[in-house]
Amino acid sequence: MAWSGPGAAQTRLNVQGGWATGGIFTEFEVPFWMETIPEKTGGAVTVRLTNLNEMGLKGPEVFRMMRLGLIDFGTSVLGYVAGDHPENGAPDLAGIANTAAEARAATEAWRPVLEELYTTKYQVTPIIFYPAEAQAVYCNTEIGSLADLQGKKVRVFTRSMADFLEAAGATPVTMSFGEVVTALQRGVIDCAVTGALSGNAAKWFEVSTHFFPLPLGWAVFMYGASTRSWEAMDPEVRSVIETEMKKLEDTLWNNGDYRTAQGIACNTGQDSCEKGTKANLTLVALTDADKARQKEIVESTVIARWAKQCGAACVERWNGTVGKVLGYTASAD
Question: Are 290 and 144 part of one and the same domain?
Fold first, then answer.
């Protein structure tokens, strides 16, 4: 669409971005907000962009900040607030999706539920949903399989990850992304879960010895706007931002598998490493036995516990959406 030109009213946006150390902020969010949006609006929109690290935030606060109108736009992981509303965890339960395509299909199927939840409960207008990459396990101790996580203290950041690892015999420890390096270094935890490439960007390889690409989710984020800010915005500005964010959504989903593969390659020092730092972690290959055990835990524990939290009506809707596209059935009993 044609922009109305230099005479358009100036719009100043406060945007809370994600983790500066995770890779996505620098590679995608900064150019989007600081270059694409000002360019597409002919300079009519300017942005104050911050990241979670510099603001001293842990992630779950972002949705509340939007609800209170403290920021205009913000992003965070849905799983961070699954304890408040179990619907948040529904499309990205630990272990249910093995590829970015599966994760996107699940998220798209559940999108109407999330849109309804955020507009009514949070006064937030969801605009896009996107992944980091497959969530893998970094360990500062020797492991050789899923069974070797038994007895280990493992950092998690969602309830379903905690359920999965508890069923695997590990002790889940909830902590924010920014606290992990020190915790691994000091032996507070033995292992930690994060994105395959995000952990590399944050230099987790400096405090780890083994890398296990067990897909424990995709860290699905939501980028939304304070409904108050969104509805007060000039319609032309709103249209441009929505159009460009949808393009960004496609880009981020299309990068999901690539970022996962790059995380594996870079953390284990392979020549195909392009996006991260070449490290020398021991690659713990995912065996057929691990995959079978993963599916067993997903069905017997992860989905079952989530279903009890979400209730019968929620489960019925999940079975007809996420469960249908991924081949799982939940029961609230």
Answer: yes
Cβ contact 133:183 at 8 Å:
no
Helices (H), 151-234: 159-167, 180-186, 198-201, 227-232
1 found inside a domain: no
Let me know whether 116 and 104 are in one domain: yes
* pLDDT tens digits, 80-135: 898 889 999 999 999 999 999 999 999 999 999 999 999 999 999 999 999 999 99
Those residues whose C-beta lies under 8 Å from the C-beta of residue 292, and which sit 6 or more positions away, are: none
The pTM of the full predicted model, rounded to 2 decimals, is 0.92
Q: Is 55 domain-assigned? A: yes
Question: Which of the four pLDDT bands, split at 50, 70 and 90, describes residue 4?
Answer: low
124-130: strand order across its sheet = 45-50, 11-16, 73-77, 221-226, 124-130
- Whichever domain contains 270, its CATH number is 3.40.190.170
